[in-house]
Amino acid sequence: PRKITVPLGKEVKILIRNIETVTHGFAIPDFNVAVKEIKAGEAVVVKFTPDKRGVFPFMCTVWCSAEHLHMTGELIVE
Question: For 48-67, how does the pLDDT look when each residue is reduced to its tens digit (9 = 90+)?
């Protein structure tokens, strides 16, 4: 999804499943969340507890295709 809304101060678990044929990465820099590689067919669970409200970017961190720069979204902490 392009937007993920989560509650402030509660542990968040995000399941990321790579259904494509190329490797991806994932990061939410404002919360020090980073997954270096998610290979084709793999799934990872990211866990963290947001400690500030706001809208924060997340993105793919591995050059994966011509669409790489569009693989972004917003984490909304309420």
Answer: 999 999 999 999 999 988 88
Alpha carbon 51 to its chain centroid, in Å, reads 17
Q: What Cα–Cα distance (Å) separates residue 56 from each residue in 1, 24, 40, 41?
A: 14, 19, 26, 27
CA distance 22 to 65: 8
What is this structure's pTM?
A: 0.91
> Residue 13: what residue type?
K
